[in-house]
Amino acid sequence: MMERRKSTPGTKIAVEHLNVHYGKKQVLADICIEIKERQITALIGPSGCGKSTFLRSLNRMNDAVPGARIEGEVRLDGENIYNPRFDVVQLRQRVGMVFQRPNPFPQSIYDNVAFGPRILGIRRRSRLDEIVEQSLREVNLWDEVKETFRKQNALTLSLGQQQRLCIARTIATRPEVILMDEPASALDPIETLRIEDLMRALVQEYTIVIVTHNMQQAARVSDWTAFFLTDDGQIGKLVEYGETGRVFTNPRDQRTVDYITGRFG
Amino acid sequence: MLRVRLQEELARVERDVLALGAMVEEAIKASVDALVRRDREAAQRIIDDDRLINERRFAIESDILVLIATQQPIARDLRLLAAMLEIITELERSGDYAKGISRVNLYLGDAPLIKPLIDIPLMAQKATDMLHRALKAFAERDVEAARAIPREDDEVDALYNRVNEELLRLVIADIKNLEQANYLLWAAHNLERAADRVTNICERVVFTVTGEMSELDTHFDAGID
Predict the structure, then answer these.
(1) How many folded domains does chain B comprise?
(2) Any domain includes B222
(3) Which residue, of A48, A107, A230, B190, is most buried by count of CB atoms within 10 Å of its CB?
(4) CATH number of B28's domain
(5) Is residue B224 part of a domain?
(6) Which domain holds residue B9?
(7) Along the 265 residues of chain A, how does pLDDT read in single tens digits?
(8) Which one of B5, B66, B72 has the shortest CB-CB distance to A245?
């Protein structure tokens, strides 16, 4: 159904033959996938299937893991981010990340959102004000904090508000891609739906990749679904990738059928 | 409002259902107009275009299944989707009646008609008017209208009985009228059935709004079956 509404989206990130090892252990094998621009791609699969590792490989978060070895290519707009000449700071600005637990800095709401822009060298107060307000508006937090955001400590917000603040902090640097690792798993059902609605609004402008244990959430929110599973050797593989409507009504691989219908294992 | 995506998708599917309804309404009207004019080219077009109605129905069905699979609709949202699944089936079949009437038009060929077509166009007018208002009732979630419309089915039935009787008389008068009488009765029967399907659509409107699953009485005088 989604394909009737939108013209075929372009590829934002092309992953080719990606292998990830942690020391001697291979965790991902031969992952090939095209992440579509301005679409939400959900990565699903049981614990340990490598989906979070895959997500982190999209902005080189695995670089910091001791013993991590990455082969293959991850091309952002055609450029391989694993090319040694690729600027990692710029990469992280272009590919932002939102984590499972909201992790605001113990500072004012304002300073949280202004953090990234300040690092990028924006100093002018009026410009920062503008960015902070716009970012808070984009995550639908503005109305809730507009009276207090300059002084209020971010840690006094509710968990759901904190997570929306973290998303505001991420988009304040105008990334092109937002990676989300279980962004709603710590939240109550209403806040979860709020985050999902927010993702649908953000996808007008950003490419979003989300890891979620919540298969229903993946179904609800995403345009594309990628199902990961470990093989007999406990190595994570991409089993099936396709439009979410198709994957959830007519999965092609029997393992996907078993997983999404709850007949797994 | 939460679940914006679900609400938008529901609204979009509903617009598609109403568009399908408009196509079917138009097809029925056009099929009888063509019959009255003895326009076989138009009839052939309606037969060909039935494919578009069928395709649209399958597309909507597929969209609804995707929504059920991905959006976990519950309560009123789920009822709406279930109702639309039924409604598109009724509409698609009603489209087949337009095709059937167009076939009659082709079968009749050039031969002069054994009777002027008066009641059949009246049936078409009534049936399509009922269909139109049933879809409006659906769009507006108008339970009162949905309960009232099926009672008008009596008028279509009365016209059908009149056509039936008249055609029978013509056959009794001259057995050579049998073939044409059969065809015309077929056309009338299709319209009678199209009106019946409006009742089914109205039942789904009531179900969507109230959750109540019941047959709507098509007679003023309850108890007569």
Answers:
(1) 1
(2) no
(3) B190
(4) 1.20.58.220
(5) no
(6) 4-210
(7) 444 444 678 999 999 999 999 999 999 999 999 999 999 999 999 999 999 999 999 999 998 889 999 999 999 999 999 999 999 989 999 999 999 999 999 999 999 999 999 999 999 999 999 999 999 999 999 999 999 999 999 999 999 999 999 999 999 999 999 999 999 998 999 999 999 999 999 999 999 999 999 999 999 999 999 999 999 999 999 999 999 999 999 999 999 999 999 887 5
(8) B66
**Interface mutation vs chain A, best among B10, B66, B81, most A CBs within 10 Å:** B66
Interface residue B9 vs chain A (CB under 8 A): yes
Q: Determine, for residues A1 and B3 on separate chains, whether the beta-carbon distance falls below 8 Å.
A: no
**Binary contact (B5, A196; C-beta < 8 A):** yes
Residues with Cβ within 8 Å of residue A130, at least 6 apart in sequence: none
- What is the tally of helices (H) and strands (E) in chain A? 11, 10
- Please name each of the domains of chain A with its CATH number: 2-260 (3.40.50.300)
Q: With DSSP H G I counted as helix, E B as strand and the rest as coil, what are the percentages for chain B, rounded to 5?
A: 85, 0, 15
Q: How many CB pairs under 8 A join A and B?
A: 43
Q: Is B5 on the interface with A (CB under 8 A)?
A: yes
